[in-house]
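Q: Protein A?
A:
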Amino acid sequence: MSEKVRCVWVNMKNQLYVEYHDTEWGVECHDDKKLFELLCLEGAQAGLSWETVLNKREEYKKCFYNFDVNKILKKTDEELLQQMTRYNIIKNRLKVLGVKKNALAYKKIVAEHGSLATYLWSYVDHKQVIQVWEQYKDAPTQTDISVQMSKNLKKYGFTFIGPTICYAFMQAAGMVSDHEKDCFRAK
């Protein structure tokens, strides 16, 4: 029996990473809480590898109350910074406090658009963009859509949300499917 072929970026030695690729990356997500989590985790990745953040994901969930926006907003900045010392997350003060800023921005978007999913998926006309690449290195790191998304999310108050982070988020949330042609997940 042959081994499944996956995108070249998957670290086959890390089962968590393999499972992420096989079951989550590029799979459509329309759940507001999960989308908020992905936005925050992608922001935590800024300057680092996704694998680093993925390995700490469960700690991030504990630290930020399973990404419950209302619980996050009830905490003072000092309380959130204390959380940083309790859990094995990336020890960056601005990124930790950025989650609270993102929670405030989330509330604004939901008040204006009804849901985070409705707002975010409007960037791709509520349909997944499917792109199959000869080699993953051919996939873009940002697009005109991710540039616009970044600008608009910043206007709402999101932090650590540049165009490259937005594109990585779009891939993670399944707004875009960017698998390599030989990958078993390519459509």
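Q: Protein B?
A:
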Amino acid sequence: MSAPARAYLDWNASAPLRPEAREALLRALDRFGNPSSPHREGREARNLVEASREGVAGFLGCGPGEVVFTSGGTEANNLALAALAAASPRQIFAAPRIEHPSVLRPLEALTRQGWTARWLPVGEDGRAELAGVAPDLGFGALQAANGETGALQPLGLAAETFGALSIPWHCDGVQAWGRVPLCPRALGCATAALSGHKLGAPTGIGALFVRSGTPVEPLLRGGPQERGRRAGTENVAGIAALAAACRAAAADRDADARWTSELRERLVAGAREVFSGLWVNGPEDRDQRLPNTASLSFPGLEGEVLVQALDLAGVAVSAGSACASGAGGPSEVLAAMGLPPWRARGALRVSLGPTTRPEEVERFLAELGRVVSTLGGGR
């Protein structure tokens, strides 16, 4: 008798490869020419890259010349922040401490170089407040959505606040693309990051929106690829797969949001039945959170222990951002929200996707009940 299929409920860490992306990836592997070469093989590869750039630009709501292909969201965030810092006349930035590590670590590096950090306050609901934004800033940063709590950030207010002061700002849109509407050009931000594997493209490919007129000094120096903004031979197959994933995500976004939202509500309600002392972290208002994400705290239990026990039971969840795992302490995000350490230590993140099945949610709830009972928690 075969073992039951695993339940994968960690989509915010990485999404399964979309069929459309897989097909585009396999087709593009035959385009082996270097896009910078003038011969036919090179031209074929270049044509595919530029056609894909137009597809990604359509998804981002910008012009093709405003798209820079990168190795993923981390490089996109680092490239954006380095560009804004290099162009800034003042060494002061503003950002909340709920940002992804690929934003926080570069910002912390700036403080070691003499920059002043103005850390924006964060409410208990996980949403940043813009009270610290002032005319003396060099630049700002605000994510679109938090990958741990699902909290959607006040981007409209950010656009208004930064725009009124003519302060350039960066938006890490990695967790929002394909789940909620997001248009960096309409928001007036200078840069915005995209990661392919959150959308169902392969790992190792991403993009950065760079508003026309925003200067960018490359992190990787070498050839003139990406209009001199990112050196290195383009990942042709990855770029083609990213464009395919973007098209599919755009077409399915509203239906996917409704599906995952319904499953999330069932999951949270079921978890409350299993553990009466459950805390749900993040906004209560569904219009202020990602439709697919639930951050659950189990007082008296350790989130990492729950993750390991559920993994052994065939269910994949996480205790927070995959990029912050192994840090050796409670979630930076939950700490920035002012939550007590016991609540942060007992947190699980469950994130769903378009192909998540109701049976997977029920599997999670059943195994959660067994695990909690074994560990001595519950009602």
